[in-house]
Amino acid sequence: MSDTPRLPRNVKALGVVSLLTDLSSEMIYPLLPLFLTTVLGAGASVIGAIEGAAESTSAFLKLASGWWSDRLPHRKPLVVVGYTLAAVARPLVGVATAAWHVLGIRLTDRAGKGIRSSPRDALLADSTHPSQRGRAYGFHRAADNFGAVIGPLVAWMLLQRQELALRSVFLWAAVPGVVGVIVLLLFVREGPHVHEPKRDEGVLVEAVGDSVIEVAAHPPARAPDGLGAPFWRYLAVLLVFTLGNSADAFLLLRASQLGVAIALIPILWAAMNLVKSLSSTPGGALSDRVGRRPLIVAGWTLYAVVYVLFAFATAEWHVWVLFLLYGAHFGLTEGVEKALVADLVPAARRGTAFGWYNFTIGLGALPASVIFGLVWDRVSPGAAFGLGAALAGVAAVGLLALVPGKRREG
Asked: Which domains, and CATH codes, for the chain?
């Protein structure tokens, strides 16, 4: 029998919620550009404007909701509101008759994501012992990514086997979304989260889920903002990496250039997400044993190598190998990056910290894709991939130099 302790119920339940939510989302998202162009007659610029506005809305709300959740006695209500808002709004694409209808729906959907993401990430940390954080976040990302594998396949089955129209597929996406909200309501339990650590006979204690654990005899010194200089240095390094992390649409475009048939693009995408799902839990668990920095540095280095190889790829089979390696980089970094956020800040400021973390990624995502696209058009695709690889390398070095390697307990 394994000595590895079980993950808390909240972690498992939130993983199921994310799986069902992403299943619902991925039944719609890959088909949305086709729906906008062929059914509603929108152009590429309209699609870009809709997605840009939606993601910007999400980024700002992630910052606000994280800050707010630190000031509420419970985080779960914000998480419920966010998931419910998205579950109700998302399938309404099936009754949209104009592009501006889709804009409103996407804004509402992403608003829901913005409201729930940071409080949910903080709730995961609140529910998990520090020794299991990497594994917990890895499990959550694995479940989320597995939803991204199933969603497109369910949509394909409904379109090809059941011969449903696009609008009907979008409406069917309501089912997993609503089931996810029900799971959240029934199976996620939360006591009042920590606002400030308490002292009990000289020992600092902290609530984790329904229990109280000893975490340190002396609390570490804190910066006036409660987050600390190491956390802000981490965000600065993360921003550098994000500026080189362009939209995955460019990878799909490169795949098409190198001969991958349009009909195989969804399979390629599902395969990448399957690798992400399978590698996330082992990657997170490994970070609990060897530390966060080695895993993130390895993942960012792998990212840089993949981007360099994309620049020099010449055959279709190269694309399949590189997409699988690209998926593995997520397994080394996605959950581990979040675990490092929880490591670096006090429990009472986790919501705010995850708000800033998510906001930083959102802040860097738009210029990253704009810069990548400009270099692609005006210089070459190879130069664009080279720039992304260089920024990932700089970020990896910066992480080693500027961010502490030891986990703060609690």
From this structure: 9-187 (1.20.1250.20), 222-402 (1.20.1250.20)
